[in-house]
Amino acid sequence: MICECYLRRPSLTPILTPRFPLPSLHTYLQFLKKSNYNNSLKSSHGISNSSSSSSGILSSIGRAIEEEEEYRRARAAVHKKGVDLEGYSIEGVSIGGHETCVIVPQLKAAFDIGRCPSRAVHQNFLFITHAHLDHIGGLPMYVATRGLYGLKPPTVFVPPCIKEDVDKLFDIHRAMSEVELNFDLVALDVGETYEMRNDLIVRPFTTHHVIPSQGYVIYSVRKKLRKQYVHLKGKQIEKLKKSGVEITNTIMCPEVAFTGDTRSDFFLDPCNADALRAKILITEATFLDENVTVEHARDHGHMHLFEIMEHAQWIRSKAIILTHFSSRYNIEDIRQAISRLQTKVPAKVVALTEGFKSMYS
Ligand SMILES: [Zn+2]
Ligand SMILES: [Zn+2]
To answer: What tens digit of pLDDT does each residue of 248-264 get?
Structure first.
């Protein structure tokens, strides 16, 4: 209805047209809705001609321009390679049901492998959360491509309940392709710890999906001199150390947590506190608005943005990266969702939209 009004009044468009090129028509239409533009049109056609109505139009235009800028930034994020947060650059592709692979090059780690984006191949550690194909489908290609490039065999972590099947899958691929496919497959259970480097460890945590699943927290590890020895001089500390006295405490700091697909129940498990205080929490927000209910999200083992907002009080992270958006949404929907969550948490909220494709685009 509003659009019709706009289309029938071409004489009013010259002010706006240069600022609203075709790709942003969506934003423009939203602007028209929000700014009650019908009234402005009536005003400018004699029903009222007060200066307050023209300043109303100007402020509406101002608002629309601001929205337009935000929209442009969101679009640019789709093409930008990753996001920089808390000293980490995080890359990857994540579209609910299609593919999810999140990469943290500084940790040489990839979380889930999706369809094996090329940058994932260069990560030595791969953490698989569950066996849905949008998360594990690219695994044989990941292992094969590393072999092709002569990279060392990677270490792939899986929930213990799928290890045997993954082994079988690779036996089939080896038989079919007559290629070696070398890698270390580690079944790492919740509560267990694996040392990736002497200053880096990983621990799985419980998530709640429709099939067995787990998330991962990567911790930095450093030694800190015990309080009772801080007043000592270098030589004295050295002497104590040589005598076999333990002079340091080990400090573990949760750096990055990745949930994979999960219901919001993971927020309420006290054992998951480290995931919720990791510097960066990477989690899913498959559903974003009123058109899909929270019940629907729960039935499908996923999270609704509204649930994250509801549980926001438990998040202690400095940054939250949302992933796994349903392809029913577009970039503007995602941008609005981020703004909504941002009002609920002090953490910086970002969407991983690199390579995101809406089913409507
Ligand atoms: Zn998924
Ligand atoms: Zn899944």
So the answer is: 999 999 999 999 999 99
Inside any domain, residue 184: yes
Last residue of a domain, one of 31, 63, 78: 78
pTM of this prediction? 0.78
Contacts of 118 (CB under 8 A, 6+ apart): none
pLDDT in tens, 92-130: 999 999 999 999 999 999 999 999 999 999 999 999 999
Give 43's pLDDT tier (boundaries 50, 70, 90).
Answer: very low
**Tokens 């990677």 belong to residue:** 154
DSSP 8-state secondary structure symbol assigned to residue 120: G
Which of the ligands is closest to the CA of residue 262? 2
Q: How far is the CA of 130 from the centre of ligand 2 (A)?
A: 7
Give the number of domains in the chain: 2
pLDDT at residue number 91: 95
* Whole-angstrom distance, CA of residue 19 vs CA of residue 30: 15
Residue 49 structural domain: 2-78
- Please tell me the distance between residue 24's alpha carbon and the centre of ligand 1 in angstroms: 29
Same domain for 57 and 134, yes or no, is no
